[in-house]
Each structure stands twice: as structure tokens, then as C-alpha cells.
Predict the structure.
Amino acid sequence: MNPLCLMENVKKTFRIGEDLSVEVLKGIDLKVDEGEFIAIMGTSGSGKSTLMNLIGCLDVPTSGRYLLAGREVLGLLDDDLSELRNTHIGFVFQSFYLLPYATVLENVLLPTLYREKTAGHVERRAAEILKLVGLEKRMNFRPNRLSGGEQQRVALCRALMNDPEIILADEPTGQLDSKTASEIMNLLSDLNKKGKTVIVVTHDATIASYAGRVIHIKDGIIIDE
Ligand SMILES: Nc1ncnc2c1ncn2[C@@H]1O[C@H](COP(=O)(O)OP(=O)(O)OP(=O)(O)O)[C@@H](O)[C@H]1O
Ligand SMILES: [Mg+2]
């Protein structure tokens, strides 16, 4: 079976101003198989979010090879890149990034706005996903009436809307207390058991312990697994 993600010697350099640049990823080799649950750990500034953005096709490598679901990412145009991203990836972030003036249901429906499907069908699907995480009674609430854990569950539902193979979660529990954090991690575990590939960035060893594999990154390289 082909790996879901395959990175070979991936480097990422950011330009800062005219003649200064900084190499943030210095040669990443990474293979992710379907169904894995991976934690990425490392100190602040080590390049974890940069790596997640590359895995999720929010950004492209400066050099090296990256195959996502068998497709070469380097050289893709923006439209093809977003198509690849929307098909395969669901994102969850530390600050939930919900739209404040939209309801819970509308927030979950966001990823489908770009797709043509009958409204009834996608709304039923959103409602089912919200029910899965116990938020069926919150569908018409605005995010500011929800707890942090509930908001993150909404964000997770939004990530699931396009039924991606991969869920990328960058510090998903960074703003949550430990009990709420473990609820979110249990949800991610359940999704992984149902076949989703999950990659989580965390500083917290307890959070990392949910993963089947832990990758440590330091100064832009993977130092050990
Ligand atoms: N767009 C950018 N332009 C310039 N430098 C950047 C850019 N994005 C990230 N960097 C730099 O790359 C380095 C790694 O950043 P990154 O966000 O990947 O770290 P991180 O491991 O996620 O840290 P944290 O744990 O604090 O979230 C940092 O020094 C950061 O300043
Ligand atoms: Mg980060």
C-alpha cells in the first residue's frame, strides 16, 4: 500500500525582507501510512506548525518531494492545491477559528460552501456529525455561548464535513483544561479507530500518549521517533 503522505528531504525557507531568509525546515523525511495516529513534539519555534502547513498543503516546500495521496504537491497551482487540501485534509487549530456571527450549524457547513450539493443533504450530514460529538442541542447557538471544549468540538465537526482521510490538529488542546483536553483527544482517538489518519502537534506528553507514534522535531529536523 502506498503511504498517504511521503516527504523526502523537504526544506522550507522563509524570506524575511529583501535579502534575509531563514531555513525553518532543513530536510524532513516523513512517511505517514493510512490509519496512523502521530504526535509531533518539539520546542517553540522548532518548525512544527510549518511542517503541519506543508502536510496540509496550506503551503508548499521550498525544495524536496512531497506526495499526498500519491500526488506530487510541488508545482501544483493554487486551485489544484486547494482541491487536494479540501479533499484529503481536515484542520483543527489551537484557537478554534469559528465565525462569531455564524451559528454552530453554519460553522460546520462552511467547508461545503465551495461544493455543489443539495442543501438538505449537507445539513443532515452536519447535524449527524454534531450529534456524534454531543452537540445536537447547540446547533443554533453562536460560538460565544459555548465552552472552549464545545467550540473545539464544533471545529472538529467542521474539519470532518468533507470526510477527509487526514485530520491535522495543531495544539488542539492548548486552550483547554486537562479534562476537556482529554475529551477532545478521546474524540480524535475514536476517529482514528474508525480509520482516520490523525496528526497532532503538542507540547504535552499526556496528549502525545494518545498517539501510536511520536515524532520529535528540533531546529527543523526530525531528531527521533
Ligand atoms: N511565514 C513566515 N515567515 C518567516 N518566518 C516564519 C514564518 N513562519 C514561521 N516562521 C519562523 O519559523 C520558525 C518555526 O515556526 P513554527 O511556527 O513552525 O514553530 P512551532 O514549532 O510551531 O512553534 P510553536 O510551538 O511556538 O507553535 C520560527 O522561528 C518562525 O518565526
Ligand atoms: Mg506552532
Notes: Helices lie at 48-55, 78-88, 104-109, 119-132, 148-160, 178-193, 205-208. The chain has one domain: 5-224.
